[in-house]
Specification:
The structure holds two protein chains of two kinds. By secondary structure, chain A is of the alpha/beta class. Chain A contains 16 helices and ten strands. In chain A, the strands form two sheets. A six-stranded mixed β-sheet of chain A has the order 6-7-8-3-9-10. The chains are: A alpha/beta, B mainly alpha. Chain A: It holds the Pfam family ABC_tran.
Chain lengths: 388, 261
């Protein structure tokens, strides 16, 4: 099982520019988490501080009992071997072929013979769809391929913690869907803790167990996916809706004055655009979950047994310009179930009373009959909670 | 980090500190297993291949200049029989290690710095760190050792070529006597002169390698940043080399008595 990552009071600035302050969260062991945020809010810096590439000004990052932010270099290097990191553009070694790149961690950290190395490398490269591309140099391939090769390299030592920086940027929607599925399948197979840093809303809706969002130098929220997906926080709602009106501006932040102006109703064009989207969105999102919604073990996915229920959860929300809580991706049929799903459900149900009401309703609406029996919840309760 | 702007000059101090800490960790990690033999051989070969020809070409005129200058000076003083001795001393002790160092840091150091700098801005170095591999041990140590080794060997070559150039110009151009030139070799020079020459070359190679690697590792901001890093690397290395040369020469003259005293 993966390792828990605990972040406490993390603060970082470059010169006078504060990136974020007082970020505290826990990436639950073995679960998939997503960190959202508009461009330039320090998502990558956050990821780098988790692996000790960026030393925070204050705060702790605890992994396996080691504080990454302040430990000695030797311990840092040892702890890093538990982690696999995929950088934004792959960060492959330009002088080595893809094969040697992927084999690099094996050759550095294990004493495997060349035959074993070849077997593992070819397996991982096939996993990311790069079988047969081994002899190519990083300069000769597309950005998407570099990214996937970077992922293969991050996976080669079977890490307990996988950190992925913008797996979708520069990839077409189909490949992004495949990468999403790959990450979920990986989690099912090796039960690693996964953190994905992205601003892809589709990925954030369907992949993670937990979602957080960084905005204006703060962690807006971090918690079970239902919390952020049903959040009424203006920045979150704007981001998930992909709209222009709201606190997020073209530059890092809009002037507060602009926000004032919009709130008083001056943004006529913006409103219309918002309505257009409201019409178009649910259909688009409703269609997508088909990818991971296969028969068999896939059906277990708690919230995710069919578009009908997802739509209903969405309908509960006032304003309903988003599709509410879409079903989560499930592992490809034939793979083991994700252990994280049950663990997370236990945790979420235990802390249910602490969550916002909209999130509670979404969670309850998504329970299967088996779940209800397991947690002793009757359908009537669920409906009442949903209506209130 | 906000201290950057608080005290003037603290940035320079910080850079100096990190340069020294890199130097220390290069020394420490030289003895850490696994040793990167393959990388060392590749780097050694690379550094040698970019420095041998320019060094040889520089050392001929340099030896000649010294021979001509010393030759005319000794003639004025009426000490023509010591021409050979003086020029050997100058070439072996001063000119040879400096030429070697300038070419190792100018030709090989700039290449090392550009290579490491490009890897840094492309996040390859970060990726390596994250994979639990120390870039200092994996990349820097072999390069620094390569620079040191090549510097020592080149120093021998420069000494020979420089002395031969001096001989040619003194004997053929200035009409000096071959016998006197050769016989006076050992009049002033003795074995410790050769040793200090090689020790200097070794230290200069180390400095050239470490400075190049340090600037490369701290490159940032894309291709322009790499260019700036290479520029700084060459300038800083040259400044350091001449300063360290002064210190080493002063120490040597103090602790090793001149021949005949």
């Amino acid at each position: 099982m993966g390792i828990e990552v605990v972040v406490e009071g993390l603060t970082k600035s470059f010169g006078r520019q504060q990136v974020w302050r007082d970020v505290s969260l826990t990436l639950p062991a073995g679960e998939v988490s997503v960190m959202l945020g508009p461009s330039g809010t320090g998502k990558t810096v956050f990821l780098k501080s988790l692996v000790g590439l960026v030393r925070p000004d204050r705060g702790r990052v605890l992994i396996d009992g080691v504080d990454i932010a302040s430990c000695r270099e030797k311990q840092l290097y040892r702890t890093r071997r538990l982690m696999g990191v995929m950088f934004q553009d792959g960060a492959l070694f330009g002088s080595m072929s893809l094969y040697d790149n992927v084999a690099f961690p094996l050759r550095e950290h294990t004493r495997l013979g060349e035959r074993d190395v070849r077997r593992i490398v070819e397996e991982k490269m096939a996993m990311v769809g790069l079988a047969g591309d081994g002899p190519k140099l990083p300069g000769e391939i597309s950005g998407g391929m570099r990214k996937r090769a970077g992922l293969a390299r991050a996976l080669v030592l079977d890490p307990q913690i996988i950190l992925v920086d913008e797996p979708d940027s520069g990839l077409d929607p189909v490949r992004t869907a495949y990468i999403s599925q790959l990450l979920i399948d990986l989690n099912a197979q090796i039960d690693a803790t996964i953190l994905i840093v992205t601003h892809n809303i589709q990925m954030a809706r369907t992949v993670p167990d937990n979602i957080g969002m960084l905005f204006r130098r703060n962690l807006v929220t971090f918690g079970p996916r239902e919390v952020l997906l049903t959040s009424d926080e203006p920045a979150v709602a704007q981001f998930l809706g992909g709209r222009r009106e709201g606190p997020i501006g073209m530059a890092e932040e809009k002037d507060d004055a602009t926000v004032e102006l919009e709130l008083t109703g001056a943004g006529g064009i913006g409103d219309r655009a918002g309505e257009d989207r409201a019409g178009g969105d649910p259909a688009r999102i409703g269609d997508r979950p088909g990818i991971g919604d296969g028969p068999g073990p896939g059906d277990r996915a708690g919230i995710g047994d069919g578009p009908g229920r997802g739509a209903r959860a969405g309908g509960d929300r006032a304003g309903g310009d988003r599709a509410g809580i879409p079903p989560q991706l499930t592992p490809t049929p034939g793979l083991p179930e994700r252990q994280a799903v049950n663990r997370r459900m236990d945790r979420v149900m235990r802390d249910l009373h602490l969550l916002p009401r909209a999130a509670q309703a979404g969670i309850l609406a998504g329970l299967t009959d088996a779940d209800r029996a397991r947690y002793g919840i009757y359908r009537r309760d669920a409906i009442r909670a949903g209506e209130s | 980090m906000s201290a950057d702007t608080a005290v003037p000059g603290i940035g320079a101090l910080r850079q100096t500190g990190s340069l020294f800490s890199l130097a220390a960790s290069v020394v420490a990690k030289t003895f850490r297993r696994p040793f990167q033999v393959r990388e060392l051989i590749e780097q050694f070969w690379f550094i040698a291949s970019v420095t041998i020809l320019p060094t040889a070409l520089v050392s001929v005129p340099f030896g000649a200049v010294i021979a001509l200058q010393v030759g005319s000076l000794t003639r004025q003083l009426g000490a023509e029989s010591f021409t050979g001795a003086a020029s050997v001393l100058a070439v072996v002790q001063q000119a040879s290690p400096l030429i070697t160092a300038l070419l190792v840091s100018g030709a090989a150091g700039s290449a090392i710095c550009a290579d490491i700098g490009a890897r840094t801005v492309r996040e390859e170095i970060d990726a390596m760190r994250v994979m639990g591999v120390s870039p200092v041990q994996r990349l820097i140590v072999p390069r620094v050792l390569g620079a040191m080794g090549v510097a020592v060997l080149l120093n021998g070559m420069v000494s020979v070529v420089g002395v031969m150039g001096g001989y040619y110009f003194n004997v053929i151009m200035q009409g000096g006597t071959p016998g006197a030139y050769l016989a006076s070799f050992s009049a002033l020079a003795h074995l410790p002169d050769l040793w200090i020459s090689e020790i200097k070359a070794l230290i200069f190679g180390f400095i050239a390698g470490v400075v190049a690697a340090h600037r490369g590792l701290s490159a940032k901001g894309g291709p322009k940043g790499v260019g700036d890093a290479v520029n700084q690397s060459v300038v800083i290395a040259f400044l350091l080399l001449f300063f360290v040369n002064l210190v080493l020469t002063a120490i040597y003259l103090q602790i090793v008595p001149a021949k005949g005293q």
